[in-house]
Amino acid sequence: MMIAPMPKNYWKEWLVVAVLAGGAAWWALTGRAWARRNLFAPAPIPEASRVEPRFLTLSFPRIVPSARRHAMSRAELSHLLSGLEDLGYVTIGLDDVRALYADGRLLPPKAVLLAFSGDDPRGAALADSALKRRRMRGALFITRTARDGDARKAYLTEHAVAQMKLGGAWSFGTLGEDGALSAGPVKFLPADAALNAAGDEPAGLRVLPVRPDRLRDATLAVIEASWPRERELADDFSRPAFDPDWIPGWGVVSRGEGKLTLLPLPRQTSAGVFVRGSEQWRDVVLEFDLVRRRREFWAYARYRGENGFVRVGARDGWWYVEQKLGPRNLPTLLGRAPIVEDGRPARVRLVLKDDSAIVHVNGRMMFGRALRVHPGWPGAG
User: What residues does 346 pair with on adjacent strands?
Assistant: First the structure.
């Protein structure tokens, strides 16, 4: 008589397989987002720390695995992020920006919005990896998403975007054909300055492109110089290279040998240079030596975009002091005085305080009195 063995029961093995398969499916669907949200989430911003009405916005180039021209490697990004962390910067999201303009909800000191643009899935993953290490937030501006299986290498899939949102560290906007970054009523345009304040127009905010060819310390110096200045700035223009304090505007701007030179290009009528971090100045003392000029020269104070300014300049044998009230207004004359040619550079001093402008040339007060600045423009008093 033969006895056949009982069939072996594999239910335990099948249970293990089922658990592993379920775990793999869960990880593929929501696991990474869960880990990002629970293990590597950015620190919450305490409500008591929200005391500032302004923030900086930085726009990063494409993030790539290793150094490449016109792109930033993940290592370079991490190095820059560590510098921001050491300087005390706090990353914010697009929800924080929208709440600032819609509800007046303030931001923490040294708030910065880190903007990444483009549809490269690998670049987004590398950026997320660098941010995750330091528990920072980011904003990604894209043109479109792809359905699973549809051009997956060229665009982020809808599932990938959903997972990044669930991770709690990313907010999303759209990248326009003109390079503008938009998120609802908020729109950022590339600029040489990065500071945005509560009183600015949400559809005309500024974003500073981070140059991949600039060293980390130089980039951090530009970022630090973008905040409103509270100290005196003095420059003797002895060095040929521009430092973070100055933004060449248009035309040819050079410095060295004790002077700043501004020359228009053939198709331009002027050249300009700006002091970084002066956008929010209200009271100011501007002092400079005018060594030589062609045709005319102007120095602007309280300059904020095209909204308004007070300027002092020389033209056709006269010193002029003028004011511009807004983008649709022509400059109006506050005062003028003849230029006394004495064969030496003119030392000009312009003082703006509350609603008064005082101008000295070579130590002599022009007009014998303070000029009243019209109080109707945005920066007055």
Answer: 290
Can you give the pLDDT at residue 240?
Answer: 75
Calculated CA dihedral for residues 207, 209, 215, 219, nearest 10 degrees: -10
Q: Which residue segment(s) compose the domain that 161 sits in? A: 34-225
Cβ atoms of 331 and 323 within 8 Å: the answer is yes
Residues 168 and 304 in one domain: no
Domain shared by 58 and 172, yes or no = yes
Residue 285 lies in a domain: yes
pTM, rounded to two decimals: 0.76
Q: What pLDDT is recorded for position 377?
A: 46
Strands 186-190 and 205-209: parallel
Residue 298's DSSP bridge partners are: 313
Tell whether 271 and 166 lie within a shared domain: no
If one counts the domains in the chain, the total is 2
CA-to-CA dists, residue 315 to 161, 260, 348, angstroms: 58, 19, 14
- Residue 343 in 3-state DSSP? coil
* pLDDT < 70 positions in the chain: 1-35, 38-40, 147-153, 280, 282, 302-307, 327, 342-344, 375-381
Say which residues have a Cβ less than 8 Å from residue 81's Cβ, sequence separation at least 6.
130, 131, 134, 136
Could you report the per-residue pLDDT of 184-237, keeping only the tens digit for each? 899 999 988 889 999 889 999 999 999 998 889 999 999 998 888 777 788 888
3-state secondary structure of 278: coil
- 258 vs 238: CA distance, rounded Å: 5
